[in-house]
Amino acid sequence: MIDLLRRIGLWGRGVVVAIPYLWLLLFFLVPFLIVFGISLSEAMLAQPPYAPLIDWLVDEDAGTTKLQILLNLSNYLRLGGDDLYILAYLNSVKIALVTTVCCLLLGYPMAYAIARAEPAKRGPLMMLVILPFWTSFLIRIYAWIGILKANGVVDNLLQWTGLTTEPFELLYSDWAVYIGMTYCYLPFMVLPLYATLEKLDPTLLEAAADLGCRPWKAFLTVTLPLSLPGIIAGSLLVFIPSVGEFVTPELLGGPDTLMIGRVLWNEFFANRDWPVASAVAIALLLFLVVPIMVFQHVQGRQTEAGR
Amino acid sequence: MKQMGKLAWALWFGYAFLYVPIALLIFYSFNESRLVTVWGGFSTKWYAELLQNDQLLGAAWLSLKVAAMSATASVVLGTVAGLALARFGRFRGRTLFGGMITAPLVMPEVITGLSLLLLFVALEQAIGWPDGRGMTTITIAHTTFTMAYVAVIIQSRLVSLDESLEEAAMDLGARPAKVFFVITLPIIAPAIVSGWLLAFTLSLDDVVVASFVSGPGSTTLPMVIFSSVKFGISPQINALATLMMVVVATGIFIASLVMARQERQRKRDEQMAVQGG
To answer: Best mutation site among A134, A286, A288 for testing chain B: the one with the most B CBs within 10 Å?
Structure first.
């Protein structure tokens, strides 16, 4: 009897899990397979604009049907052969790395200061970091246009102090992209850093100090290694989406700020070359598989540690 | 606290970095001049103009509908997913499930958008659904990437909670469904509220995925903002941004007040229970 109840219970659980499971299979996993399939297809003037991969060829005379599967690798060969794509990938990685380092340099002291503040103040201080995240990403990028453009706030300030006399424009450059992306991704860095730094036992630092360790050395040998999980989680949370970023380079970057997200967007919307866009996406995904898996590992361990 | 000096500076610099752009944006929304960065006197005319921009208002209405629907759907799916990850132990396919939950958190939007569009196109060819692209496809796409956030919030809330309450209810003969609705759901209610708010904001914010999966005639607010921002800045967008921020800030403020009150109530109840026992 108990065994039967258990069985029903487990069956009920299975049904419950099945709903989000099937949803994710259909709308998250299957789409990747389709992207992969279409990346092996050929662009064609049609609706939708690619040649079908699998076709049934009906031979009326012989009365037979043949299954034809056409795969072509030319899209991938094009990615490997054209400097534009390779440069775009390399440049995306460079911009994502710089963004991650900037977020870390700015976010670590913030997270550390909040974690060392009085317990009652930590919540509100952290809230102040998260709050901008709730306002629109697009609008936060937009805010920087007015600041960085010629005759914008920075330019006016510099001219007013007499540092420059010529109009000075930061907008439409790689610098603007670094600033904008650091701005948008900063909370993603501070959150996991704060989570590990807050759990850090302050008596460890006291012990180090009692044993004659200087503060900066104690930081390097105690605090920094112990906060490594937070550093890794935060860096990946910033780095991975940054590589494929589209909006920031499109709005703040110049025409020569080459990033792979922009290339994909243009292949898809401007050139209507869906197969090449798919190949770009698959190549990007292959590059990101390792970081994503590391992120999942770290994320999984952190949630387990919450127990 | 002496070494806090430099740290405090770093903290305030960080806050300045985060808030000065937003403050300037709001400031210039009340600017009389069309030149956004030249101060021409106080005026609210951009707000008045905004209310007459039918294209913008239509897009805003569509975005709000999509955000409300997808946030609701993603809270339902995400809660179930979070519950499964936190409470069901090991089940078949758990690794894949966990992977599909965390991957959307970091997946570049261009990949999500492209892959969902290709899925919708393939589905339409195969079974005739979805018939064209529009509100339905945007809602499905937003549900898919926001449910991951909800699931993670719910999961971490459940992991940090003691399982004993649920176990006690089970021991007293409550069925799993009843345990969920009577015990678990009220406990994770604050997490559900923040999950819904987060999903709503993320949906209201998305331009990349929506651009891929929307069809003619279904332009969301971020898509309108994006295309107008590409042609330079306009005071109307400043006014719109200010209004959106006021709405979001009010929503968060009310939600946090309600949650703080519930938390206090819960603590009082717990104390009473302990004293009573």
So the answer is: A134
